[in-house]
Amino acid sequence: MLPKTETVLNFIGGEMREPQGGAWLENTDPATGKIYGRVADSGAEDLQAAVDAAQAAFPAWRDAPAQQRAACLRNLADLIEKHFEDFIRAESIDTGKPVALARAVDIPRSAANLRAFAEAAVIFAGEEFENETSHSYTLRRPHGVVATISPWNLPLLLLTWKAAPALAAGNCLIAKPSEVTPVTAFLLSSLIDAAGFPPGVFNLLHGRGAGIGAAIAAHPDIPAISFTGGTETGKAIYAAAAPHLKRISLELGGKNPTIVFADAEFDAAVDGAVRAAFSNQGQICLCGSRLLIEEGIYDQFKAAFLEKTDAIKTGDPLGAATQHGAMVSEQHMHKVLSCIDLAKEEGGKILCGGESLQIGGRCKDGFFIAPTVIEGLPQNCRTNREEIFGPVVTLQSFQNEAEALALANATEYGLAASVWTQDDATAERMAAEIDSGIVWINCWNLRDLNTPFGGMKKSGIGREGKWRAMQFFTEEKTVTRPK
Ligand code: NDP
Questions:
Q1: Residue 474 phi, psi (nearest 5)
Q2: Which DSSP string corresponds to 326-390?
Q3: Residue 1 domain-assigned (yes or no)
Q4: Is 295 a catalytic residue?
C-alpha cells in the first residue's frame, strides 16, 4: 500500500520524517484550485541529517557489487509498475497534466530510467591507453553524497533520470523535487526500503527552492549537483557551488524552433509541430515554441496548424480523453498570461486562445490556458526571445535556408530544434549549423536514453543520457605503468 498523500514527509536514513523546524507548505491541485495536502518545508537541520545519513551509508554502497545496485534499481522500477495506476493518478493531480500523458510518458519513462541505469551500473567501465612507453587505464569512482534538484513539469521522470545514474554509480543521494509537485517523489521514497536500498542511500528532502534548494547548493559536503530547471535558478546554483568547486550539471530553459520547409511531408509536419508546441500544456523544456515556416506554404500550413490546434481536447486532467490539462499553478498561469499580454503589446496578432479557459464542474476554479497561437512578431522582440513555458507558440515565415538558420539561432538558448524536410542534404546542413544540443529531423522528442541530452548557450552545461550521466556522477583517475 502506498501512503496517503495529504502529508508529504521527508525520507532520511530510511525513515519518513517530519521537518525538524515544524514548517509546512500547502499543496494545491491545479485542476481544481483546491489545497489537498501539506508538504514538509525542510531546513538546515533536515539537510544535515540527510547528509549524515548519506555519508554513513556511502562506503558500503560504493563497495557493493554493481549487480546489487542494479538489482535495487530494477526492483524500484518493478514497484513503480506494480503501483502504476496510483502513480499515474498522483502525477496527474499534482501537476494538472492529462492522465493520458502521465500514462504514456511520465510513469513508464520513470521505470525505464531506472532500468536503463541498472544496466549501465554493471557495464560502466574505464578506458585503456597504450603508447610506446606506457600502459594506462582509468578508474571511475563515485563522488560520495550527491544531490539532484528537479522541476515540476515532469516530476518523477526527471527525478529518476538523475537519481538512477547517481545511485548506479555508487553515490548516496539527496534528492529535492519541486515544492509545487512533490507527491510522486514522496510515493517513490515509500518504496525505497522494499526495493532493497540500504538506509541512507536515497534521501528525499522537500521544501522551497530558495530555502532547502539553496542550502543544498551551498553545502560543503555535497560535491556534485545535477539540476534541471530555469536558467536564472541554474545561475544561482552555479554561483553558490563555485566556492566549493562542485561538479555541476545544468539542464536549463529553451526557446526551441520547429522549422518547416516547403518540401516537408505536410501532415506529419503539422502533427509534429502541434505536439511540439502544446504537449504538457507547453511546459516541457523541449517544446517547439517558435514555429518557422517556409514562405511558400505559410498560409496553408498555418490553416492546418490552427485546425489541428482547435481540435485539441481541453478539460479535466483526470478525464481519459483529455489532451490539454491545467497549468501547474496559479502563479505560473498568471506568468504565462502576462507573456501573452506582452505579445499583444509588442504587436502580435492572437490567432487562437490568448486567455484563461473556464472549465466547468469540479475544475471551475482550476488554472487553465487555451492553446495560443500568435503571428506578426519579429524575431528580436521579447516574445520570440524569452522562454514562456506555456501553451503559446509564435509563427514566423522564412524565405530560404539561410534565413531559417538565422532565425533558429537568434536566441540565447540552444536546447532543441526540429527540422521538417524531405531533403536529406538540407536536414543535415541545418543539423550541423543550428546551435542546439539536440536536433530532431522529421520528428520531435523521439528519445533514446543512450544518447547525450542537454543544451548549448544558456540552455545548460554538460550532458545527461546513459554514459554522460554515469561520467558526471563519477571522478576519473588515470593509472599508468611503464611498458
Ligand atoms: P525552477 O528553476 O524555478 O526550479 C527548479 C528546481 O530548483 C525546483 O526544485 C526549485 O524548487 C529549485 N530551486 C528554485 N530556486 C532555487 C535556488 N535558489 N537554489 C536551489 N534550488 C532552487 O524551474 P521550474 O520548476 O519553474 O521549471 C521550469 C524550468 O525548468 C523551465 O525554465 C524549463 O525550461 C526548465 N526545464 C529544463 C529542462 C531541461 O532538461 N533542460 C527540462 C525541464 C524543465 P521549488 O520549485 O520548490 O522552488
A1: -135, 155
A2: --S-HHHHHHHHHHHHHHHHTT-EEEE--SB----GGGTTS--B--EEEES--TTSHHHHS---S
A3: no
A4: no
**At residue 398, what are phi and psi to the nearest 5 degrees?**
-135, 155
Q: Which residue of the set 285, 287, 339, 363 is catalytic?
A: 285
Number of helices (H), then strands (E), belonging to the chain: the values are 17, 23
Both 263 and 395 in one domain: the answer is: yes
29-84 pLDDT, tens digit each: 999 999 999 999 999 999 999 999 999 999 999 999 999 999 999 999 999 999 99
- Position 233 pLDDT exceeds 90: yes
Output the residue whose Cα is nearest ligand 1's atom 38. Answer: 285
> Which one-letter amino acid corresponds to residue 116?
A
Q: The domain containing residue 177 runs over which residues?
A: 7-252+459-482
- Which whole-number Å values give the CA distances from 177 to 79, 110, 150, 209, in the listed order? 20, 14, 5, 9
Tell which one of 156, 158, 178, 339 to mutate to probe ligand 1, the residue whose CB is within 8 A of the most ligand atoms: 178
For ligand 1, the distance from its centroid to the CA atom of residue 236, given in whole angstroms, is 11
Q: List strand residue ranges (DSSP E) for 239-354, in order.
A: 247-251, 256-260, 288-294, 349-352
Active site residue 45: no
Over the stretch 142-192, which tens digit does the pLDDT of each residue have? 999 999 999 999 999 999 999 999 999 999 999 999 999 999 999 999 999
Q: Write out residues with Cβ below 6 Å of ligand 1.
A: 149-153, 176, 178-180, 208-210, 213-214, 217, 228-230, 233, 236-237, 251-254, 285, 387, 389, 415, 455, 460
Whether 315 maps to a domain, the answer reads yes
For residue 454, tell me if it sits in a domain: no
Are β-strands 134-142 and 145-149 bridged in parallel, bridged antiparallel, or unpaired?
unpaired
Cβ-based neighbours of 59, under 8 Å, separated by 6 or more: none
Place of cell 561520467: 471
> Is 158 in the same domain as 23?
yes
CB-based contacts of 211: which residues, under 8 Å, 6+ apart? Answer: 41, 42, 43
Band (pLDDT 50/70/90 cuts) for residue 1 is confident
Closest residue by Cα to residue 97 from 230, 358, 279 = 279
Task: Give the CATH number for residue 331.
Answer: 3.40.309.10
Pairing verdict, β 7-8 and 34-40:
parallel
| Total structural domains within the chain | 2
Strand locations in 126-201, DSSP E? Answer: 128-130, 134-142, 145-149, 172-176
Amino acid at 105: V
Question: Which ligand 1 atom is nearest residue 464's CA?
Answer: 40
Instruction: State the Cα–Cα distance between residues 253 and 318, nearest whole angstrom.
Output: 28
C-alpha dist (Å) from residue 27 to 30, 53, 229, 352, 363: 9, 27, 20, 32, 16
In a domain, 406, yes or no: yes
